[in-house]
Write a structure and sequence with these properties.
This protein is of the alpha+beta class. The protein folds into two domains: 4-166, Aminotransferase class 4, branched-chain amino acid transferase, N-terminal domain (D-amino Acid Aminotransferase, Chain A, domain 1, 2-Layer Sandwich), CATH 3.30.470; 176-338, D-amino Acid Aminotransferase, subunit A, domain 2 (D-amino Acid Aminotransferase, Chain A, domain 2), CATH 3.20.10. 23% of the residues lie in helices and 27% in strands. It has helices at residues 4-11, 60-64, 87-100, 108-121, 197-201, 204-212, 258-269, 324-337, and strands at 32-38, 41-42, 46-48, 67-69, 72-76, 82-85, 134-143, 156-165, 176-180, 217-221, 229-232, 236-240, 246-249, 275-278, 290-295, 299-308, 311-314, 348-350. The strands form two sheets. Strands 1, 2, 3, 4, 5, 6, 7, 8 and 18 form a nine-stranded antiparallel beta sheet that branches. Strands 9, 10, 11, 12, 13, 14, 15, 16 and 17 form a nine-stranded mixed beta sheet that branches. A hairpin with a 3-residue loop joins strand 15 (290-295) and strand 16. The site of pyridoxal-5'-phosphate has 14 residues, from helix 7 and strand 15.
Length: 352
């Protein structure tokens, strides 16, 4: 007898998409997971088909932006199995983000179960092995309860949807040029370390300006003194110094990227590179060899040039290809995600 899963594989077919060229865009997939928090508790949650959300006009989400989110990917391995990379850390981070925004945190076990259900409910949308594409998962939580006076709402919704995304870089990672933003990303004791939509709303203006000026991203400096490096709008920055050490900016207002934390571990334990995690002055960058931006979407984007008005820093690794250390880190982490390299214990969740 066929198991439910293999029967499904037998009867259903992968969507006919040009997986290598789908880019990073939203596609409506078949199923999404929804759980509601009402009367002080989360319900058991379920997969549904309707991609639309209906909210009251005065929902806390719409008025005071009570929202937190996560971003993660599922990959098909060569044997056809589907895996997720360190989803327990997304569950932990979203739990903490929700607490900071005064939202009921979503139980971590239920979070992982929701991820499994969404992947299994959309198997035809999981890009095949070798396409370079993956299934992007977007867990998020928002206030559905009505508020008008400023206070936390009393009802919430947790959702997870997915969309297939193409390889960020076709034919190898190409270095980007970034600029130092004249705006700040996060206040010193604000919400910089929280993955919340509110941090993105305020970054859109400087992001549009950066794109108009021909830069891929903004590099933000510490808002108190504007002398230390923080991160970009959606990725953590890492550097390689002249001695080949990995230099990783440290600040309470940097979002704790799972990609960056994984890279730090792999540098130390797999590649035996010394890692220096500390506050990093903008002034130091001119002495560095390589720079990269870490996040789920691109994994690591090599940076070839950093511009702050008249001050132009051309990293020695150049604009042609990633430098040797960033390149090796990229190959190691993407090797683990795609099953070509054995990862540390517990990094891969086998979904089906
Ligand atoms: C999500 C995010 C990152 C990257 O985190 P990953 O867990 O690696 O995807 C970096 N900076 C900001 C501001 C983010 O929101």
């Amino acid at each position: 007898m066929l198991s439910a899963l293999s029967e499904r594989r037998f009867t259903m077919a992968k969507k006919n998409l040009d997986w290598g060229n789908i880019g990073f865009a939203y596609h409506v997939t078949d199923k999404r997971y929804v759980s509601n928090w009402k009367d002080g508790k989360w319900d058991e949650g379920a997969l549904i088909s309707n991609p639309e959300v209906t909210l009251n006009e005065s929902a806390g989400m719409l008025q005071y932006c009570q929202q937190v989110f996560e971003g993660m990917k599922a990959y098909t391995w060569e044997d056809g199995s589907v895996v997720c990379f360190r989803p327990d850390l997304n569950a932990d981070r979203m739990y903490e983000s929700a607490q900071r925004i005064e939202m009921p945190p979503f139980p971590k076990d239920q979070f992982l179960d929701a991820i499994d259900q969404v992947v299994k409910g959309n198997l035809d949308w999981v890009p095949p092995y070798g396409s370079g594409a993956s299934l992007y998962l977007r867990p998020y939580e928002f206030a559905t309860g009505v508020v008008i006076g400023v206070k936390p709402a009393d009802e919430y919704q947790f959702r997870v949807f997915c969309t297939p995304v193409g390889p960020y870089y076709k034919g190898g990672a190409t270095p980007i040029a970034i600029q130092v933003s004249d705006f700040d990303r996060a206040a010193p004791r604000g919400t910089g370390a929280v993955k919340a939509g509110l941090n993105y709303a305020m970054s859109l203006h400087s992001s549009v300006l950066a794109h108009k000026a021909g830069f891929a991203e903004n590099l933000y400096l510490d808002p108190a003194t504007r002398t230390y490096v923080e991160e970009t709008g959606g990725s953590n920055a890492i550097f390689v110094d002249k001695a080949g050490n990995l230099v990783v900016p440290k600040s309470p207002s940097i979002l704790p990227s799972i990609t960056r934390r994984s890279i730090v571990y792999l540098a130390e334990h797999y590649l035996h590179i010394h890692v220096d995690e500390r506050p990093v002055k903008y002034e130091e960058i001119k002495n560095f060899q390589e720079c990269g931006l870490c996040g789920t979407a691109a994994v690591i984007s090599p940076v070839g040039r950093i511009v702050n008005h008249d001050d132009v820093i051309n990293l020695p690794s150049g604009m042609e290809k990633a430098g040797p250390v960033i390149g090796e880190l990229y190959d190691t982490i993407t090797g683990i995600q795609s099953g070509r390299i054995e990862g540390p214990e517990g990094w891969i969740r086998h979904i089906c």
